[in-house]
Amino acid sequence: MAYSLISSSTFLLSRSPNTTLAPLNKHNFPLRPSRARATAATIICCSNSPTTSATRSIVSKLLLFTKPSSSASSAFESLFVFCGSVVLSFTLLFSNVDSASAFVVTPQRKLQTDELATVRLFQENTPSVVNITNLAARQDAFTLDVLEVPQGSGSGFVWDSKGHVVTNYHVIRGASDIRVTFADQSAYDAKIVGFDQDKDVAVLRIDAPKDKLRPIPIGVSADLLVGQKVYAIGNPFGLDHTLTTGVISGLRREISSAATGRPIQDVIQTDAAINPGNSGGPLLDSSGSLIGINTAIYSPSGASSGVGFSIPVDTVNGIVDQLVKFGKVTRPILGIKFAPDQSVEQLGVSGVLVLDAPPNGPAGKAGLLSTKRDAYGRLILGDIITSVNGKKVSNGSDLYRILDQCKVGDEVIVEVLRGDQKEKIPVKLEPKPDET
After folding, report:
1. Distance (Å, rounded) from C-alpha 416 to C-alpha 422?
2. Is 394 a residue of the active site?
3. In Å, how far are 52, 116, 118, 362 from 112, measured between CA atoms?
């Protein structure tokens, strides 16, 4: 195949050392230098083949030995350029140009510094991010065979070299089997090590080769600032290993656990696109360190609206450590059921209204009173908790926030409003019944 590059510019030709080409003027030939530059064809050719040498000779003869009359100079110039271009094009087309080399140089793509950093971050952390498929057992209506049907999917990431994978609890909730898929499409069955419904965190374990397990770098969320760049990697809508970028839009937000409704404090708000399937995936800072787990979005439509939430890594760290060591999270409780915050506001008071305090629970043992009805069906309000250990309690979120700072076995002073009187009652905290 031969290539002929022809354009309207100055005539350039590779020639032998014995050939002399010079601009032609009216004293030698009627072709003037200015017009020669304007009308001649540019032909770039590098070749050592005999055919190409013959081509050089033909063109040289056309240039050096053709003398048009002065009256027909303009017409001859056009005809000369046309004939020379046609001859050279056909010569190159049918000649052997194996030794010829024609190059079209494409400038190297240059990325900006921030683009290079983003590309490097994605390439280094992608092997640590996995796709998690939630499989549920279903019985075929006709054959009565039990089949495993995918009922949802999410994201996760490798926590350590022992095969532990961290994700959201709501990603694996109700699963009979769980499959973990890496970026290279290698898949492994996973077992549940433990989960914390209140904070929406779960830990899985897979038996994978050591070279597959690349733990993600763990960062710190205590010193985050609004405005700093963040990166989310996950599998939105089943599109594996998708990267989205944004900034931290807010800090110390509070959301409710999808499983228990218990509040999750100090949540990170970001405008990085988080969609269904991103749940359980990592939120990274600009150095590629984990700062949170993508867990929820605020969106009436169910798609990203620019308001996403991530559980801070400082919270996740303590939970994962307990789940890996003990398979559960030991969290203290008062052992009460309380009324919705709106009901207490309608009474014109501030606090948590105790609806039920079972006698075998911590609050019941300490003597807190439940809400009940008298013999005539009239409602008798129970105790209203106004503070714990001197910290004001205005609603249920305040109560949970205080209890999260306590440990099982701690004794707390609960101040309650009983009728028109305030009383302080010591209560010894106990673990949840299903965690004993």
Report:
1. 6
2. no
3. 44, 6, 10, 61
Q: Among candidates 334, 331, 353, which has minimal Cα distance to 342?
A: 353
pTM: 0.64
Question: Which residue out of 47, 153, 164, 170 is catalytically annotated?
Answer: 170
Q: Is 310 a catalytic residue?
A: no
From 47, 153, 279, 370, active-site residue: 279
Query: Which position among 200, 240, 271, 398 bears the catalytic label?
Result: 200
pLDDT tens across 369-408, in order?
999 988 888 888 899 999 999 999 988 888 888 888 888 8
Give yes or no: 170 in active site. yes
Per-residue pLDDT, averaged over 27-38, amounts to 42
